[in-house]
Design goal:
It is a single chain. The protein is of the alpha+beta class and 153 residues long. It has a single domain, classed as Gcn5-related N-acetyltransferase (GNAT) (Aminopeptidase, 3-Layer(aba) Sandwich), CATH 3.40.630.30. The model has no long low-confidence stretch (mean pLDDT 95).
Length: 153
């Protein structure tokens, strides 16, 4: 397995990964538009950005996974001025359970360290226990709980 920085040539595959990720998450979030094509990320802009590192995992010269690390500013009341954020974690079905997401995350940890960041965060749906378990394996701990209520019921 090779983890490398994504290029614009990878964009068609990454856009497909994004749609598969959205498809998997739609049942977990009734607030997402269910029928029309939506996009979570500006992947092309992220690839070009200095504050975001988009990476792909290659297995046998095939892109099998993705993720990004992004430097985000914090509000003034926090000790650190910036933190790292991980998103766009996706692994193709045939390569799940092989440690790809953990390897991508560890790669991003190293990238964040070169930027002198001290903390990394991410968000995950509570109804996605497989992802939660994978994040806990690489050291993440639950920190905040976001709650919602629909007023249309």
């Amino acid at each position: 397995m090779i983890i490398r920085t994504a290029t614009l040539e990878d964009l068609p595959i990454l856009l497909d990964f994004e749609q598969k990720l959205i498809e998997a998450e739609r049942p977990m979030d009734p607030t997402l538009k269910q029928k029309e094509k939506i996009s979570y990320y500006s992947i092309e802009d992220y690839i070009k950005s200095d504050h975001t590192e988009v990476v792909v995992a290659e297995v046998n010269n095939e892109i099998a996974g993705s993720g990004y690390g992004q430097i985000r500013d914090r509000k003034d009341f926090f000790i650190q001025k910036q933190y790292g954020y991980i998103g766009f974690m996706y692994v193709t079905e045939e390569h799940r359970g092989k440690g790809i997401s953990q390897t991508v995350i560890k790669y991003l940890y190293d990238w964040f360290k070169t930027k002198n960041l001290e903390e990394v965060r991410l968000t995950v749906y509570e109804k996605n226990p497989r992802a939660i378990k994978a994040y806990e394996k690489v050291g993440f701990e639950k920190h905040l709980i976001e709650m919602r209520i629909s007023l249309n019921n």
